TrEMBL record:
One of its GO terms (cellular component) is cytoplasm. It is found in: Cytoplasm. GO terms for molecular function: beta-aspartyl-peptidase activity; hydrolase activity, acting on carbon-nitrogen (but not peptide) bonds; metal ion binding; metallopeptidase activity. It comes from Alteribacter lacisalsi. It holds the Pfam family Amidohydro_1. Its EC number is 3.4.19.-. Catalyzes the hydrolytic cleavage of a subset of L-isoaspartyl (L-beta-aspartyl) dipeptides. Used to degrade proteins damaged by L-isoaspartyl residues formation. The keyword Transferase does not apply. Its cofactor is Zn(2+). This is Isoaspartyl dipeptidase.
Length: 391
């Protein structure tokens, strides 16, 4: 059945004003001032009244531990797998899965299988090859082959640097990873980016900067994440983004972590924009299902909680309602900016021929009203209508 959303305030993410949006066969068929349902028979089209709602692209969360993560507090602290309804509740229609700290009991076969499962349940899902560790633990034995031959695999990550849990990679090792990912991406039409976990070491972004300065690898081949971990890292991230790099904020956090030196994402976005960072170089990700460990200065575990994908839209909303960031700017950090960084050519924009991944949110309080993924209802009138297989 065709779907026609009428009279919604469309943000593509740039504002288009009140429009009608026609959805057909999982794609956006048209975005026009008026589309007349009388041109279709009643059995062919479902008409949705979008009055009082903002229509925007579905969120892209490019850093989620879809098979679970963690384990820093031993086996009992392994976090559970991602559930479909968590993404739906958070307005997320596209997910990129990563492994993280545990590259031994969390495997690439498991990651790819989970990505395929989420796709069958209605989301768009991709994944990165590897984990914190270097050498990269791949699916086929080669990072380049993983990206070229495996549909779901789009790059490498999350590779850890500046962290006591990392493999302490050298500049040459990181350069080789980026080179293989880049060539794999070129040959397969994918981004081939390297998602880089940043710890709280004073080295911060130094290793990435050395690779960019001493090789031909472009700065955009890296997406460093957790840039809001501490003040010094945030300042380094501002300089990195002004040079042309991407920087990624992590939205999952705790009151205890924020009481330390971490910057709340919505506040960090406002600051970066004020510092002159181009808005298209900033992304938000949730780190969903990842553990949120807290270590003391000696590296001993103090406590651990779990990241939530629902934190992504919350920080986007807070950027608007609490920090005064324009709506169209705030939503870019989880839509068009991510699509650009990861070369998701059919995602992140409300336009004809793009995938019909859409959110309808209340124009006043910005609460999520409805979610459409691939042209299908996932949430309708604030009720989740599509749940995971075992939910």
């Amino acid at each position: 059945m065709l779907k026609l959303i009428r009279n919604a305030d469309v943000f593509a993410p740039d504002p288009l004003g009140v429009k009608d949006v026609l959805i057909a066969d999982g794609r956006i068929a048209a975005v026009k001032d008026h589309i007349f349902p009388e041109n279709f028979s009643s059995g062919e089209i479902e008409v949705i009244n979008g009055t009082g709602l903002k229509l925007m692209p579905g969120l892209i969360d490019s850093h989620v531990h879809i098979t679970g993560g963690g384990g820093e507090g031993s086996f009992k602290t392994r976090t559970p797998e991602l559930m479909l309804s968590d993404c739906v509740a958070g307005g997320i229609t596209t997910v990129v899965g990563v492994i993280g700290t545990d590259g031994t009991t969390r495997t690439m076969t498991n990651l790819v299988a989970k990505a395929k499962g989420l796709k069958e349940e209605g989301l768009s899902c991709f994944c990165q090859s590897g984990s914190y560790q270097v050498p990269v633990k791949t699916l086929t034995g080669s990072l380049e082959q993983d990206i070229i031959l495996i549909e779901e695999i789009i790059g490498a990550g999350e590779i850890a640097i500046s962290d006591h849990r990392s493999s302490q990679p050298t500049k040459e090792e990181l350069a080789r990873i980026a080179s293989e990912a880049r060539v794999g991406g070129i040959l397969s039409g994918k981004a081939g980016v390297v998602n880089v976990h940043l710890g709280d070491s004073p080295d911060r972004l130094k290793l990435i900067e050395e690779v960019v300065e001493t090789t031909d690898i472009p700065i955009t081949q890296f997406v460093p994440t957790h840039i809001n971990r501490n003040e010094e890292l945030l300042e380094a991230g501002i300089a990195f983004a002004i040079k042309g790099g991407y920087v990624d904020f992590t939205t999952s956090t705790t009151k205890e972590i924020l009481a330390g030196d971490e910057t709340k994402c919505s506040r960090g976005l406002k600051r970066m924009l004020a510092e002159g960072v181009p808005e298209n170089r900033i992304t938000f990700t949730s780190d969903g299902q990842g553990s949120l460990p807290e270590f003391d200065k000696a590296g001993n575990l103090k406590g651990l909680r779990i990241g939530r994908v629902t934190s992504l839209y919350k920080e986007v909303k807070d950027a608007v309602l609490e920090e005064g960031v324009p709506f169209e700017t705030a939503i870019k950090v989880a839509t068009s900016n991510v699509a650009e960084a990861y070369k998701f050519r059919q995602k992140g924009t409300v336009a004809a021929e793009m995938d019909a991944d859409l959110l309808l949110v209340d124009a006043e309080n910005l609460e999520i009203d409805s979610v459409i993924a691939g042209g299908k209802w996932m949430m309708k009138n604030k009720e989740i209508v599509t749940k995971g297989t075992f939910e």
